[in-house]
Amino acid sequence: MTENDERALAPLPPHPVRDALLRLFAELDTVTSTEAARRLGVSSGLCSFHLRQLARHRLIEEAPHRGGGRVRPWRLRTEAPDAPEAAAGDGTLNRALEDESYRHWLENRGRAPGEWRRDAAFSEVLHLTPDELDEVAAAIRAVLAPYRDRHGRPEGAAPVAAVARLFPLLVDLPHGR
C-alpha cells in the first residue's frame, strides 16, 4: 500500500470549507471550484484545494463535462457499478458523506428555522432472508422514487438526506440457503 493510499484511507479531519462544499453537493449535482468560491465567499484556489482533498479521500470525483478549457466539475462519488449500493442510482450518497452530513445536522440543527428542526430517524431489527432483504431495499427505493429528481421542486423544499442501511447483524446466521 502506498503512502497516498494510506492517506486516502485515513479519516479526513473536519474543516469548515470542506463541510460547506459537501453541503453544496447536496444542493447541486456538480460543482466547479469557481462556482463553489462564488457561493461560499472564499477563493477559488481554496475551494480547488479542498475539492482535491475530498477527491483524494474518495468522497467526490470529476464529473463528465462537455467543452474544453480548464473547467473541472466535481460530483459526489458514485459507487462501482457492480456494488449493491449502486442499484439505488447515481444519487447515492456515500457512507462518509452520510456520516459527515448527519454529524453536521446534529451539531447545527438549533440554527435551522423552526419547521426544519426535526428529523425522522428510526431503526428496527428485522428477521429477514437474503431475498427479503432485497425486497425491503426495493420497497424503500420505490417509496423514495417520486421525490427524487422532480422537476419544479415545491416551494419551501430543501435537500433532505434519506439514508437506509440494511445489513445482517452477523449473529447466528444460518449457513447456506
At a glance:
39% of the residues lie in helices and 3% in strands.
Tell me about this structure:
The chain is mainly alpha-helical and 177 residues long. Helices cover 39% and strands 3% of the residues. A two-stranded antiparallel ribbon has the order 1-2. The two termini are 37 Å apart. Mean pLDDT is 79; it is low at 80-92.
Compile the SSE list and pairings.
Layout: H1 3-9, H2 16-27, H3 33-40, H4 44-56, E1 60-62, E2 74-76, H5 95-108, H6 130-144
Antiparallel strand pairs: 1-2
Helix pairs in contact: 3-4
The Rg value, from CA coordinates, equals 19 Å
Largest sheet composition: 2 strands, antiparallel
**Poorly predicted runs of 5 or more residues:** 80-92
- Average pLDDT metric: 79
What is the count of DSSP helices, taking H or I runs of 4+ residues?
6
Overall geometry comes to globular
Give the SSE order as H and E letters.
Answer: HHHHEEHH
The N- to C-terminal Cα distance equals 37 Å
Strand order, biggest sheet?
Answer: 1-2
The percent range for strand residues is under 5%
The helix content, as a percent range, equals 25-40%
Structural class category:
mainly alpha
Tally of DSSP β-strands = 2
